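Lab notebook page, bench 4
Experiment: in silico fold of construct C2
Operator: M.H.
Input chain length: 230 residues
Purpose: comparison with the prior construct
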Amino acid sequence: MKHQHRLFAIFILLLSCVSLQAQTPAQQSPGEENVSFQWAFGAMVGDAGAKKFVSVTKDTTLHSGDQVKMLVQLTKDCYVYVVHVGSKGEVSLLFPYDIKQISTDYKTGRNYYIPKGRGWDVLDNNTGRETFYVLASTDRLLDLEAKLGNYFSADASKQTDLGKDVVTEIRNVKKHYKNFATLAEKPITIGGNVRGLEKAEEARRPDVSTIATQVSANNFYSKTFTVDHQ
């Protein structure tokens, strides 16, 4: 009888282990896509009279007078941040346009252009290395938001150190989420045709949405673009 009781106890223990495995949260699945958005980074490069529209997909070289424009479109409920660090360490939050926007105008399916409207940002004469950080998460990056808030509310004399705090926090976030995978980065297709530069170049005013990439990730995504501004 004691032997039978031991066997029964072992059987119950095995059933408990199976039950615990079955209750593992779905969000821990390595293949789940819960961060999803469209992203575009375009530049108008070359001489003023013959500028060419190009897609920026990796580290690149741009020159004073070149123009840049970006686009974010949320395709799932997630939080996307685009942060620019200039050649002298100055920090800009490009998207959202300000932190309050997350509570007032942060919707899926809407094109958010950077800068707003039809205008483009023009690279000035302050040459050097410029960095664009793109971060996306299922949750708000509140520590990063706090660091950005500290930077923007500080006197100019303190912003150099506070800008370094922002960059350090970005690195900390990337390190914290390093085990989460980017599932896909692929060009958007329309009617079976991939959006490309040829049609965009034909337009008098190029729309960066024509070169958008669909980004899908598990819990977190990050990408860094370094621009050698000459």
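Observations: Residues 2-22 form the longest helix (21 residues). The helical segments are 2-22, 101-104, 142-153, 156-176, 197-202.
Next step: discuss at group meeting.
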